[in-house]
Amino acid sequence: MIRVRLAPSPTGKLHLGTARTALFNFLFARKNKGAFILRFEDTDETRSTKEYEEDIKASLKWLGLYWDEEYRQMERLARYREYAEKLIAQGVAEKIKGAVIFRAKKALDKLGIEYKTKVKAVKNKSDESQKDKDLNAYLVEDIGRDIIHGPIKGLVSDSVLLRSGNPPIPTFHLAVVVDDYEMKISHVIRGEDHLPNTPLHIVLQRLLSIPTPFYVHLPLILGPDKTKLSKRHAAVAVSDYKKAGYLPEAIVNYLALLGWSEKGKDKDKEILGLKELIKAFKLEDLQKSPAIFFKEKLDWLNGEWIRQLSVKELTARILDFGYKKVDERMTSIIQKRLKRLDEAPYWTDFFFQNIPYKKELLKGELEEKRALEILKLALTRFNKTQWKSDKIKIEAKSLAQAVNLKPKDFLYPIRIAITGRPVSPPLFESMEILGKDETLKRLEKAMAMLKNSSIRKD
Question: Where is this chain's protein located in or outside the cell (predicted)?
Answer without folding.
Answer: Cytoplasm
